[in-house]
Design a protein that fits this description.
Layout: E1 13-14, E2 30-33, H1 35-40, E3 56-61, E4 90-91, E5 94-95, E6 98-100, H2 101-109, E7 119-123, H3 130-144, E8 150-154, H4 161-169, E9 174-180, H5 184-191, H6 201-214, E10 220-226, H7 232-245, E11 248-253, H8 270-285, E12 294-295, E13 301-303, H9 308-317, H10 358-368
Parallel strand pairs: 3-7, 7-8, 8-9, 9-10, 10-11
Antiparallel strand pairs: 1-6, 2-3, 2-6, 4-5, 12-13
Helix pairs in contact: 4-6, 7-8, 8-10
């Protein structure tokens, strides 16, 4: 279905400062949308540093009761519910305004994204209605825009294997799990009983194993956050495990979200983050393995396990330092989900949402030469 974009009625766009009552805004009628997606659709004014758009329409199910989990690093955590209206909370550094899902579909059908969206992602939260509403959103999207593939960022805590099978049957292409923490201890400390949150390491890994079976190779992955307290070797061990299973690793740099339990935790050091990015790319796309890498006694990478010339070629491409996520249609090594400035500011870019130029690569290389401990 197509339409003349100039004839489309203005979208009903809701922001907290409009004083719309949040109890009326719940999925599946409403969803939250990343700021980058809203700018790409022309719904709000604004420009993104050195990029005109995001290639992934990132959506989030939403309820006035909020997320029932209490992850220590998350802007949507339950403990924040008395401090701010749920619909006004930021998530991975940026605001997520609330819109009608039918209006989103109509705008994309009309070409408001100027053909930029290569993927749509439904992000779930921990809520009793999240599973069923994700199904409804997927069905409505596939009926209207089947040419744009859909990823599911899941909530394993409330899901069973049958849910994955149904999502796959209805047309979801990729299934991801936000594992985030790289070790059972860190997971428990930041997402489990220690913070009065319902998530369990074993349940998340069960969902990853289901995804590898139901969705198959190259169609599942995990989110990992660098800088929660893990060593480089620990997080890269997870990357290797996922790669061996047939999946991909989507990396985020830890950002101390204001109002979260970890708001005073330091951001991930630049040299640590760059080594993680590079090693993850080598594992996922360059044929390397963690078994060929060398780590010091602090778990830091000191040898990436590749010939010098090959390593220099990979660094020079800049690809390891771009945002990692579900792929688009152009290059399997480059993410459609470029999440502009989701984990850093434009003045100190950690995940580049655009192709790096020569100066950018030199900037990254200078950050990497900080000596390991």
């Amino acid at each position: 279905m197509s339409a003349d974009i100039d004839n489309v009625q203005p979208m009903q766009f809701y922001r907290p400062d409009y004083h719309i009552k949040t109890p009326d805004m719940r999925s599946p009628e409403y969803v939250q949308m990343s700021t980058a997606a809203a700018i790409t659709l022309g719904l709000i004014p604004g420009k993104m540093h050195r990029t005109a758009c995001t290639h992934c329409l990132n959506l989030l199910v939403t309820y006035p009761e909020g997320c029932r989990a209490n992850c220590a690093y998350c802007g949507l955590a339950r403990h924040r519910e008395e401090a701010r209206d749920y619909a006004d909370r930021n998530f991975i550094r940026v605001d997520w305004p609330t819109v009608r899902f039918s209006d989103v579909i109509a705008r994309v059908q009309a070409g408001a994204d100027r053909g930029q969206f290569q993927r749509m992602c439904i992000s779930m939260i921990t809520h009793p209605n999240s599973d069923a509403d994700t199904i409804i959103l997927l069905q409505q999207w596939m009926a209207a825009l089947p040419q744009i593939p859909v990823s599911i960022l899941s909530n394993p805590t409330t899901m069973e294997k049958a849910d994955l099978i149904e999502l796959r049957r209805l047309g979801a292409e990729i299934f991801t799990v936000a594992l985030d923490a790289a070790t059972p201890t860190l997971f428990e400390r930041t997402r489990g009983k220690s913070v009065d949150s319902p998530h369990r390491w074993e349940k998340y890994w069960q969902a990853i194993e289901w995804a590898s079976e139901v969705f198959g190779p190259e169609r599942f992955g995990v989110h990992l956050i660098g800088g929660l307290g893990e060593t480089e070797q620990e997080i890269l061990s997870i990357c290797q495990r996922i790669k061996t299973m047939g999946g991909h690793n989507h990396m985020f740099a830890f950002y101390p979200e204001q109002g979260s339990l970890m708001e005073d935790w330091p951001a991930v050091p630049h040299d640590q983050w760059r080594r993680i990015q590079l090693a993850r790319f080598i594992i996922d796309y360059a044929g390397g393995t963690i078994q060929n890498m060398i780590f010091n006694t602090f778990g830091q990478v000191i040898d990436f396990g590749l010939p010098t010339a090959r390593l220099a070629e990979i660094i020079h491409s800049g690809k390891p330092f771009q945002t990692s996520g579900c792929p688009g249609s152009d290059d399997t090594e480059i993410s459609a989900c470029n999440r502009p400035y989701g984990d850093s500011s434009p003045s100190d870019i950690l995940s580049f949402p655009f192709t790096l130029n020569a100066l950018d690569v030199e900037f990254v290389k200078n950050q990497m030469i900080n000596k390991p401990l």
